[in-house]
Amino acid sequence: MSTPRTVIVTGASSGIGLGLAQAYLDRGYNVVGNARSQAGLDAAAATLGQPERFLGVVGDVADPSTATQMVERAVARFGQVDVLVNNAGFFLPKPFIDYSAEELESLLATNLKGVVYMSQAAARHMIERRQGHIVNISASVALQPNLAVPAALPVLIKGGVNQMTRALALELSPFNIQVNAVAPGIIDTPMHDPAHRDFLNGLQPAGRLGRTEEIADAVLYLSSAGFTTGAVLPVDGGMSSGTW
């Protein structure tokens, strides 16, 4: 690429987010990565090892000022924002009646408000440029709930993100902005206890956990797809295809 493209990745300090940051750097992108702590960003920067093309921004995506700051700093450092990946989030499975009010607020803040604020800030910039891509990281369980993994509130919130993806794809289409989502199954990251691996493997028809690079491949495709918008792409080893 003669002029490197720039991507914002929220939740970039570990897991899928760190894998996405690495994949974009490998493709020649400039990367603006977000995390809640400076220590997390410092560790990510050390792992990625390309300080000239990686800019870390500390902040909580549930705070709208974080979104504004990320876009402004991306533009100041690299000139524009071409892609936003709304990756920041967490998964909290438990019986529906056991969710507390505090857990609901926390899920809504990070998994929903963070997507809204970041998308608004990026869309304002992309509308001016009349081009851009927004990719939301959803969840396979929002496409096909699973009795073995009770998670009604994550399903509610990620399901809302899926519908917002479709609505924004229509609304932003006149500005040449594509909006899509990737719905991962269970991905092999440090958050999973190795003692639970056999159980987790059995939740996908493929019989194994997904890899972060498999999510990155899907996100990278949607980052440059000119004729795909409003799609929610499962990358889940068949988990969302139905019950088995």
UniProtKB/TrEMBL annotation:
Lineage start: Bacteria, Pseudomonadati, Pseudomonadota, Gammaproteobacteria, Pseudomonadales
Record-linked Gene3D superfamilies: NAD(P)-binding Rossmann-like Domain (3.40.50.720)
The organism's place on the tree of life at top rank: Bacteria
Gene Ontology biological process terms, A to Z: fatty acid elongation
Pfam families according to UniProt: adh_short_C2
Descriptive protein name: 3-oxoacyl-ACP reductase
SUPFAM superfamilies hit by this protein: NAD(P)-binding Rossmann-fold domains
CDD domains in the cross-refs: SDR_c
